[in-house]
């Protein structure tokens, strides 16, 4: 409900949001990807706009329509997503990494369609992709308040806490994707915000409603650091 949303909590703030999956090309017609729908990132973009922010939405391929008021950058690979994330980062106040970035990409991208050979087993060589949110969190100057997500199937809060520390984030939003009612492709989600000194749980709700609650919580935590 609109009345439960505090308008203007991000007035004048510049927010970058990554969303959706990335696609890592194998050849001109094939890629490695995942089932991310982009719903959470798009809902966060909408909520941040409603809270008064100017939003750059950096999105992998999804079927959603981006909010008209957002500046949208469509990307495919993790490397393209990183380049779009760093473009103008010195003006960014809050960086929210909601994308499901492919952890690895093929070492070689074939120039032509790979033909089926006689072998029964085909091996792919993969190389680790750059970590976008860790790169942003590690910036020496003009570093934005940096927020990541942690989708986990077990020991959710413990893994989220270790990701918060390892990536040098200000905040991580943990969700348990072992529950089929929430997470990845679902319309609902339930999350726990984890920072160095706080833990706030938001119960299951639509991604739209949850995004509004998240933006309110994020703005409150951010305002403690923004002086
Ligand atoms: N992330 C990123 N760039 C990557 C991988 C992840 O920006 N190359 C971001 C995601 O957008 C998310 C956070 O890092 O905000 C956590 O992603 P996750 O996949 O849970 O973490 P990983 O470090 O990749 O660990 P693992 O997949 O092994 O759990
Ligand atoms: Ca990952």
From TrEMBL:
Give me the segments passing through the membrane: none
Supply the EC number(s): 4.1.1.36, 6.3.2.5
**Where does the record place the DNA/pantothenate metabolism flavoprotein C-terminal domain?**
10-220
Reaction catalysed by this enzyme: (R)-4'-phosphopantothenate + L-cysteine + CTP = N-[(R)-4-phosphopantothenoyl]-L-cysteine + CMP + diphosphate + H(+); N-[(R)-4-phosphopantothenoyl]-L-cysteine + H(+) = (R)-4'-phosphopantetheine + CO2
State where CTP binds: 103, 113, 130-133, 149, 163, 167
Q: How is the cofactor bound?
A: Binds 1 FMN per subunit.
Molecular function as annotated in GO? phosphopantothenate--cysteine ligase activity; phosphopantothenoylcysteine decarboxylase activity
Q: Please give the residue ranges the record annotates as the region Phosphopantothenate--cysteine ligase.
A: 15-227
According to UniProt, this protein's pathway is: Cofactor biosynthesis; coenzyme A biosynthesis; CoA from (R)-pantothenate: step 3/5; Cofactor biosynthesis; coenzyme A biosynthesis; CoA from (R)-pantothenate: step 2/5
Question: Which keywords fit this entry according to its UniProt record?
Answer: Decarboxylase, Flavoprotein, FMN, Ligase, Lyase, Magnesium, Metal-binding, Multifunctional enzyme
Similarity comment = In the C-terminal section; belongs to the PPC synthetase family. In the N-terminal section; belongs to the HFCD (homo-oligomeric flavin containing Cys decarboxylase) superfamily.
User: What is the recorded function of this protein according to its Swiss-Prot or TrEMBL entry?
Assistant: Catalyzes two steps in the biosynthesis of coenzyme A. In the first step cysteine is conjugated to 4'-phosphopantothenate to form 4-phosphopantothenoylcysteine, in the latter compound is decarboxylated to form 4'-phosphopantotheine. Catalyzes two sequential steps in the biosynthesis of coenzyme A. In the first step cysteine is conjugated to 4'-phosphopantothenate to form 4-phosphopantothenoylcysteine. In the second step the latter compound is decarboxylated to form 4'-phosphopantotheine.
> What is the name listed in the Swiss-Prot or TrEMBL entry for this protein?
Coenzyme A biosynthesis bifunctional protein CoaBC
């Amino acid at each position: 409900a609109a009345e439960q949303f505090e308008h203007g909590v991000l007035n004048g703030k510049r927010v970058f949001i990554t969303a959706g999956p990335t696609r890592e090309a194998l050849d001109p017609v094939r890629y490695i990807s995942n089932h991310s729908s982009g719903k959470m990132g798009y809902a966060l973009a909408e909520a941040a706009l409603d809270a008064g922010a100017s939003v750059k939405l950096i999105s992998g391929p999804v079927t959603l329509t981006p909010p008209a008021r957002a500046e949208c950058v469509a990307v495919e690979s993790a490397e393209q997503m990183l380049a779009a994330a760093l473009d103008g980062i010195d003006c960014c106040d809050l960086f929210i990494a909601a994308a499901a970035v492919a952890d690895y990409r093929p070492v070689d991208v074939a120039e032509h369609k790979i033909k089926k050979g006689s072998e029964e087993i085909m091996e792919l060589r993969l190389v680790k992709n750059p970590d976008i949110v860790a790169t942003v969190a590690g910036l020496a100057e003009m570093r934005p308040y940096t927020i990541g997500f942690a989708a986990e199937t077990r020991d959710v809060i413990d893994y989220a806490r270790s990701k918060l520390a390892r990536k040098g984030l200000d905040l991580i939003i943990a969700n348990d994707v072992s529950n089929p009612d929430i997470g990845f492709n679902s319309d609902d989600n339930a999350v726990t915000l984890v920072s160095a000194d706080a833990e706030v749980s938001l119960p299951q709700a639509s991604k739209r409603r949850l995004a509004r609650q998240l933006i309110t919580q994020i703005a409150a935590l951010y305002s403690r650091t923004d002086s």
